[in-house]
């Protein structure tokens, strides 16, 4: 009996160690008819844990922002709506506890409230669909909004040293040079005069340009004989022309395995056919080796589903 229990325990431990992943259908054919369900993918990829991971937090926020901004949330099945609202509640609880990224939560709460009001106006003063479901949604939305409004970040006490204002300007500059989002630079400029002075330096915006754009793209807006470059103006010109590297805005994104057509978090890995099947691995070696996984930004992730 004990041996059987130990065997069951080892088996459950092995299953528990399997990283979150989700096989998807890329293209439907006569032989292969598939359908990708958003709620199933969210469960299999363990988005609930991802909201508490500092590396994956911004990816989840961007995904929820896309769902709420285009009012796609109200077009999802009821089970998917409840799952995503549950994710938002978990995200709100995490932000309230950690005191990190409160503005991201407030933006999501505002978008959620806007989607709710738009749905209410769309159908004779009340949302379309099950009243019981929307009562559940209303309670969840009220909790999320209340959590977002109640978050207060206390100022560090005198015992906390050093504070940001105590750091030398060289350290502040190094911090600014590592910011990859131009909106964060603008916010930092409005927060403190020292940061505003540093953000006006050409080097900060030059590094941002070189991070997001290639030399070929840069050559389309810069003249060959141009010596004094306004890097901030150049950055916004390139941003309007080419957009930003979406995958570079997140510490971690979902990836798509090109061999087993599986979505997974790159830092966690996934059980791949290239690792499990010796014959397949030999064929890959003959073909030149395995292909690297393809990054999947939030907008590309939603394209796998019929929304």
From TrEMBL:
GO terms for cellular component: cytoplasm; nucleus; SCF ubiquitin ligase complex. Pathway: Protein modification; protein ubiquitination. InterPro entries: F-box-like_dom_sf, FBX25/32. Its main location: nucleus. The keyword Ribonucleoprotein does not apply. It comes from the Eukaryota. The keyword Nucleus applies. SUPFAM superfamilies: F-box domain. Keywords: Nucleus, Ubl conjugation pathway. It is found in: Nucleus. GO terms for biological process: protein ubiquitination. This is F-box only protein 25. It comes from Papilio machaon. The lineage of its organism: Eukaryota, Metazoa, Ecdysozoa, Arthropoda, Hexapoda.
